[in-house]
UniProtKB/TrEMBL annotation:
It comes from Salvia splendens. Belongs to the NADH:flavin oxidoreductase/NADH oxidase family. Its EC number is 1.3.1.42. PANTHER family: NADH OXIDOREDUCTASE-RELATED (PTHR22893), NADPH DEHYDROGENASE 2-RELATED (PTHR22893:SF91). Keywords: Flavoprotein, FMN, NADP, Oxidoreductase. This is 12-oxophytodienoate reductase. Pathway: Lipid metabolism; oxylipin biosynthesis. GO terms for molecular function: 12-oxophytodienoate reductase activity; FMN binding. It is an enzyme of class 1 (oxidoreductase). Residues 13-184, 200-371 form the NADH:flavin oxidoreductase/NADH oxidase N-terminal domain.
Length: 398
């Protein structure tokens, strides 16, 4: 008699995968998703349920984008990881995810110019690679966002921002040993003191948010970056800021705990590049040299409410060039996620909206069960339950 487990056809997304030190039991990743329910930038106890609902043994999950400093915010009620209160707020959430046996990374970000003076300390201008202002934009929710003219960072200020990422990475992982302070800047000094006084919030690693038109992307893309110093102009110069951040967080917490998300093809927030294939390939090659755990790339396809548009570009050359784990995202469902793994175009596939609406998504994929539909209107409302923890599990719907 054959073993029934052996008789089952293999579902590529549900096969195990060794990601560095992490033994994953399946390849269905929770994509990072901003939920705007962290009042005053502090993660709330209702997030314990939200994230633990989506946790499974050996699953890999990414947190919503989490601000690295008080200048990093551009949306209401998004979490941070630069104060003691925020770090403490994350702990029960991370603990709950770990109790279910999942691996949890914190996505750390800075919005750069995707902000306005209302989000900034002392009403100052948002910072960016440029002083070019974003034009008014209507959000998917229908809300109109008003952006303030950004202030171009001086060359001398850039190490401070790199350091904010380093401290955020450390806060996500552990308090660690005291730092040697070589910088005389007071802000840097106090940030280091604070980092040393914090205890671990216990994430397993961090994902640097280098995608979607936020600060790092504002340096990477030639449609935004108009600098004339060593952070602008050539491809190498535009990638310098991203490289310095990766180098800093890698030195701080170890390359085996660091991933990065990139979207070379996207032009969200007016951040297009004239040669995204070259940019993406260059990043995949150069970031490999740091030995980081993974590269998480957003597919070059567009999706509207009704239709998916494939485009002629492909992530495959970047997949081949990158030495670590390769994660793909955007517009995937069970069928083409399975295909991407089967054809070795990706090691893991991140799911956003489907995972938001289906807390037991890996289980549903396993059973090929019907999926709940997501409700776009409740993506970003501040309610601690509605559109957040009230999507039914399979056994509740059947
Ligand atoms: C509500 C919502 C919030 C999002 N927030 C983030 C975020 O914080 N960081 C990020 O990198 N991407 C964010 N994204 C993009 C998703 O991670 C994902 O790339 C996108 O939804 C496309 O994948 P999907 O087709 O599987 O939903 C967000 C998407 C949604 C729907």
């Amino acid at each position: 008699m054959g073993n029934t487990a052996e008789e089952k056809p293999q579902i590529p997304l549900l096969t195990p995968y060794q990601m560095g030190n992490f033994q994953l039991s399946h390849r269905v990743v929770l994509a990072p998703m901003t939920r705007q329910r962290s009042y005053n930038n502090v993660p709330q106890s209702h997030a314990v349920l939200y994230y633990s609902q989506r946790a499974s043994k050996g699953g890999f999950m990414l947190s919503e984008a989490t601000g690295v400093s008080d200048t990093a915010q551009g949306y209401p009620e998004t979490p941070g990881i630069w104060t003691k209160e925020q770090v403490e707020g994350w702990k029960p959430i991370v603990d709950a995810v770990h109790a279910k046996g999942a691996v949890f990374f914190c996505q750390i970000w800075h919005v750069g110019r995707v902000s306005n003076t209302g989000f900034q300390p002392n009403g100052q201008a948002p910072i960016s690679s440029t002083d070019k202002e974003l034009t008014i934009e209507t959000q998917p929710s229908g809300d109109v966002m008003q952006y303030s003219p950004p202030r171009r960072l001086t060359t001398e200020e850039i190490p401070q921002i790199v350091n904010d990422f380093r401290i955020a990475a450390r806060n996500a992982i552990e308090a660690g040993k005291p730092l040697v302070i070589v910088h005389t800047n007071l802000r840097l000094f106090y940030a280091n003191i604070l980092a040393n006084s914090l205890s671990s919030s216990g994430f397993d690693g961090i994902e640097v948010h280098g995608a979607h038109g936020y600060l790092i992307d504002q340096f990477l893309k030639d449609g935004v970056n108009d600098r004339t110093d060593q952070y602008g102009g050539s491809l190498e110069n535009r990638c310098r800021f991203a490289h310095e951040i990766v180098e800093a967080v890698t030195a701080e917490i170890g390359a085996e705990r660091v991933g990065i998300r990139l979207s070379p093809f996207a032009d969200y927030m007016e951040s297009g590049d004239s040669d995204p294939n070259t940019l993406g390939l260059h990043l995949a090659e150069t970031l490999s040299r740091y030995g980081i755990l993974y590269c998480h790339m957003v597919e070059p396809r567009m999706e509207t409410a009704d239709e998916k548009f494939e485009c002629p570009h492909s992530l495959v050359p970047m997949r081949r060039a990158f030495k670590g784990t390769f994660i793909v995202a955007s517009g995937y469902d069970r069928e083409d996620g399975n295909k991407a793994v089967e054809e070795d175009r990706a090691d893991l596939v991140a799911f956003g909206r489907l995972f938001l609406a289906n807390p037991d998504l890996p289980k549903r994929f396993e059973l090929n069960a019907p999926l709940n539909k997501y409700d776009r209107d409740t993506f970003y409302i501040p309610d601690p339950v509605v559109g957040y923890t009230d999507y039914p599990f399979l056994d509740e719907t059947t």
